[in-house]
Amino acid sequence: CETFPLAIQLPFKGKVRWQDFDQDLYVGATVVRPGQDPYARNKFNQVESDKLRMDRAVPDTRHDQYVVPLSTRLIWLHTTVLVLKKSPPQLVKEIILVDDYSDNPEDGALLGKIEKVRVLRNDRREGLMRSRVRGADAATAPVLTFLDSHCECNDHWLGGRVAEDKTRVVSPIIDVINMDNFQYVGASADLKGGFDWNLVFKWDYMTLDQRRARQGNPIAPIKTPMIAGGLFVMDKEYFEQLGKYDMMMDVWGGENLEISFRVWQCGGSLEIIPCSRVGHVFRKQHPYTFPGGSGTVFASIQSRLEMKKRLGCKPFKWYLENVYPELRVPDHQDIAFGALQQGGNCLDTLGHFTDGVVGVYECHNAGGNQEWALTKDKSVKHMDLCLTVVDRTAGSLIRLQGCRENDSRQKWEQIESNSKLRHVGSNLCLDSRSARMGGLTVEVCSLSLNQQWKFTLNLQS
């Protein structure tokens, strides 16, 4: 992977090398006491986190062809130290840590003693977007690298794509750091960023044609419709030219979609760089609150619409047709759309085609075999295949068959507040009780949890 100088290393008076930083003293201030919940403070296992050394060895998860909001003390320290350890000194001018008015100002102040580290503390809670903009405004290097606080950089993670074209915004492959035991697990290199129609970020597998095209060069950059948002590199001048972040956005959430749309529609591009790997702790809960409630974060977008016009940005339709053509757009015939979910499992074609059975599989939020639509003509469709009741008796298997406009065997309706799918003209409901024995069936409608189904998006609810 190529590298390029971000800036020249400068002397730092009164600083200590990261190798000389007293980790034990720093972590000891907030150690989890016997009887305390290790997940309470950060929503990951702090006991296991505290056992890690700040410069722990991270497995190299790259292909064989290759030769941060403040919420926790040690993870912030890991991120800082591994940026310094895994980066050539001339590539890092400074590390700016933004403390978004955390409970203890000493958390950041102590880290500010490490070489090249500068800590900015907000005097009130500003949220992710305004905090990032404050850090970006303070930066003096020509290239910005945004990182969440709970990350670990891998070998040779900095590259030169932005230096070649300042309108490129690049992201690493994001490996997974387990929130319970902090095991570092390499992620697939066949994924792109995307979203569903609830505007939730998801990972999409590349199409078969896209994977085939990459066989000769598996480390080539991957054009991606969306970036996850927490980890990316961007030219500072271009970041400012495109309007930074929307300063009306509060706390957290949605900024990854907004900046991804804006980059593509306003002349730039997004890439995932396979030779760049950064681990990230994925948590199931936010470790912080939404002051006033999450419903208060909505704001006027008038200034962003004016900026879009000023920059001559392309319409969203252009983005859908040219950047993300794989995303199926709900049409006026759809009543409900997306995954058909039952607990943590989703209705899945299991890769079957005409006359094949359907089943349930762990929801992956990536569309594909789990993408369905309930249409106004009462068909449950996956592409050009429809759920078909071949034998209208309880216990009979559901089959996938080509959709036919007037076939009564393919007519379904939502009942009981859109929580069940009933075959029209019978009292038989879609049921998963036999899923492990070869496929889904229709059974007499009942209160069974095996008959509870929920579409990702109900367009008429």
Automatic annotation (TrEMBL):
Its EC number is 2.4.1.-. Residues 331-456 form the Ricin B lectin domain. It is found in: Golgi apparatus membrane. Signal peptide: none annotated. One of its GO terms (cellular component) is Golgi membrane. GO terms for biological process: protein O-linked glycosylation. It comes from the Eukaryota. It is a single-pass type II membrane protein. InterPro entries: GalNAc-T (IPR045885), Glyco_trans_2-like (IPR001173), Nucleotide-diphossugar_trans (IPR029044), Ricin_B-like_lectins (IPR035992), Ricin_B_lectin (IPR000772). It holds the Pfam family Ricin_B_lectin. Belongs to the glycosyltransferase 2 family. GalNAc-T subfamily. This is Polypeptide N-acetylgalactosaminyltransferase. It comes from Monopterus albus.
